[in-house]
Q: What sequence folds into this?
């Protein structure tokens, strides 16, 4: 060895240490097919969750700690979770340093669980990322495939990052066949990005002995990929063979299409929708209706211990007449449809008066939110659709939260199209795919720099609507946003996303979003920006170039609102024309053709109009 091991906290003075290193050197010889050929960590985690949920009572499940779960894993499961999370190939023998979040060291049992079993030993080396510290564990590998395990079984703390040092002096380390492929390679030094995400805090301090090593910059957002603790739930609303959670969305243009989605138990393997033009003199009749068979897909959420498997059914109706009201029903078969499920009206082919509802975060207190939704339905029965500016639920990866949301919505979204926006809580505690993507079928005409359905656009009457994902990098959506606004001749322009350009909270601000998107809004005169996140109500003066304008004809109005029961403090801001805290609201926006008027009104749960704006063009 070219560098003495005396600088580490371990020494080769016992047969146990020698065996551990031997195991570490041999455990991952190159396998047929290269670094990528391995079982899926995601599939193994799902299998473990299902097994634990089926064999351990819910209360005991959520008391399990990582050290309790490790003995419950099979040898194959431990091998995959300990080797197949990250893989890459090296051309020469290397020492692999895994820099572990120091908060794990405060626990009695170290995570990642596989470090000791794989022969990784602790060192005195500590790297810093501002206030966060990461202690290095080291193990030696021959040239070939190197596989590393999951960050933790708890889902806690920052993901580890990796540095590589050649064992033989004079060797140059080359890293190839990195899996997952979007991870990057750099140099370990102060100022370097620890992760394959430049928005994360960089490395600020490195032990001098390790400066210049090859740095594998891993995906920081995979730290919860193997979370197995405190994740299990029961839904209060178990799926049955009767369709429920019926919701209208758009996955194509709203003038001639309508998408309908619903849920059943896994016992129902198919679905059908029947629709016809609504005529007060002609009752709904499946014999006279047009039939469309559903695309049926299983939604498997093993963490919901009393209802892990359901089926979701989706149909998209096409060839509809613009500006026309339809009535529809859904069922397992055509014979099972005995009554309508709801109605919808397609968007007009030309400018016509219409209205829509906008809400900020529902997130919590769905039983109280239900009252607000029912009032909106009663007072505005002709509202064409409802925009929700993110945080529809509190725990986006917990299906029981979604079940609660849909149950309390009643038939609200069966009679007006839901236009959802991704909030940070849709990503909250995600351990795989964002469940939002599995539940909704939405437009996919957004930028290719964000996942499909995360950003999209549509026109309704004489208005353009743009939905953005403010959880993703604003810069990745700016060019598409600019191009979409530039190409539109719509009289009215609305944009909705979650994190506010102008916050209502005294302790929150989103300067990156403001810097990226506000100049685009200014350049194309967006009329209103509809946001959430801050759990209070705020409407700005018309704003342009970060300054107050005299009239809406000169600037954009930004709104923050909340529809659920979780409330935050209100700050004192000179950009606020109207602001108040501790009040759930919904907003009704009427587009009037006569006089080219927009009437905006905010209502509280008692039906009192608490804010009003009129814009004329």
A:
């Amino acid at each position: 060895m070219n560098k003495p091991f005396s600088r580490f906290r371990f020494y080769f003075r016992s047969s146990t240490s020698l065996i551990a290193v031997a195991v570490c050197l041999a455990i991952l010889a190159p396998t047929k097919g290269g670094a990528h050929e391995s079982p899926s960590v995601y599939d193994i985690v799902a299998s473990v969750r299902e097994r634990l949920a089926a064999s351990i009572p819910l209360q005991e499940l959520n008391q399990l700690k990582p050290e309790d779960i490790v003995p419950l894993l099979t040898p194959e499961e431990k091998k995959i979770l300990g080797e197949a999370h990250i893989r890459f190939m090296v051309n020469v023998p290397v020492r692999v340093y895994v820099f572990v979040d120091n908060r794990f060291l405060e626990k009695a049992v170290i995570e990642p669980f596989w470090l000791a079993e794989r022969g990784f030993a602790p060192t005195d080396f500590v790297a810093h990322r501002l206030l966060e510290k990461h202690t290095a564990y080291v193990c030696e590998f021959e040239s070939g495939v190197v596989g590393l395990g999951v960050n933790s079984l708890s889902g806690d703390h920052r993901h580890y990052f990796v540095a590589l040092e050649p064992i033989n002096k004079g060797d140059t380390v080359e890293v190839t066949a990195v899996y997952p492929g979007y991870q990057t390679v750099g140099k370990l030094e102060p100022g370097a990005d620890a992760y394959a995400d430049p928005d994360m805090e960089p490395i600020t301090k490195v032990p001098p002995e390790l400066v210049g090593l090859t740095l594998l910059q891993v995906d920081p957002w995979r730290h919860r990929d193997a979370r197995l603790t405190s994740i299990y739930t029961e839904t209060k609303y178990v799926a049955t063979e009767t369709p429920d959670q019926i919701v209208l969305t758009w996955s194509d243009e709203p003038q001639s299409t309508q998408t309908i989605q619903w849920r059943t138990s896994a016992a129902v393997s198919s679905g059908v929708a029947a629709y016809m033009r609504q005529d007060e003199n002609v009752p709904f009749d499946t014999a006279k209706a047009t039939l469309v068979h559903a695309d049926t897909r299983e939604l498997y959420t093993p963490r919901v211990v009393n209802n892990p498997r359901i089926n979701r059914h989706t149909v998209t109706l096409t060839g509809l007449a613009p500006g026309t009201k339809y009535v529809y029903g859904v069922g397992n078969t055509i014979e099972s449809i005995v009554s309508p499920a709801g109605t919808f009206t397609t968007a007009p082919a030309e400018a016509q008066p219409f209205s829509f509802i906008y809400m900020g975060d529902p997130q919590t207190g769905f039983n109280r939110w239900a009252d607000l939704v029912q009032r909106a339905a009663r007072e505005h029965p002709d509202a064409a659709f409802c925009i929700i500016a993110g945080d529809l639920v509190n725990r986006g990866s917990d299906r029981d939260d979604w079940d609660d949301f849909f149950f309390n919505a009643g038939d609200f979204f069966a009679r007006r199209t839901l236009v959802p926006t991704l909030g940070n809580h849709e990503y909250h505690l995600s351990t795989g795919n964002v469940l939002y993507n599995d539940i909704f079928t939405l437009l996919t005409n957004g930028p290719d720099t964000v996942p499909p359905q995360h950003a999209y656009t549509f026109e309704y009457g004489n208005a353009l609507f743009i939905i953005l994902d403010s959880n993703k990098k604003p810069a990745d959506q700016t060019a598409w946003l600019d191009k979409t606004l530039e190409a539109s001749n719509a009289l009215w322009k609305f944009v909705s996303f979650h994190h506010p350009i102008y916050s209502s909270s005294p302790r929150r601000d989103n300067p990156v979003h403001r810097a990226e998107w506000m100049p685009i809004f200014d350049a194309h005169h967006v009329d209103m920006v509809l946001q959430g996140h801050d759990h209070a109500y705020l409407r700005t003066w018309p704003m342009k170039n970060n300054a107050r304008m005299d009239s809406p004809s000169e600037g954009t109005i930004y709104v923050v609102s909340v529809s659920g029961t979780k409330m935050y403090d209100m700050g004192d801001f000179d950009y606020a024309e109207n602001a108040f805290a501790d009040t759930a609201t919904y907003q009704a926006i009427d587009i009037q053709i006569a006089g080219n008027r927009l009437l905006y009104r905010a209502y509280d749960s008692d039906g009192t109009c608490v804010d009003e704006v009129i814009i004329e063009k």
Residues 41-55 form the longest helix (15 residues).
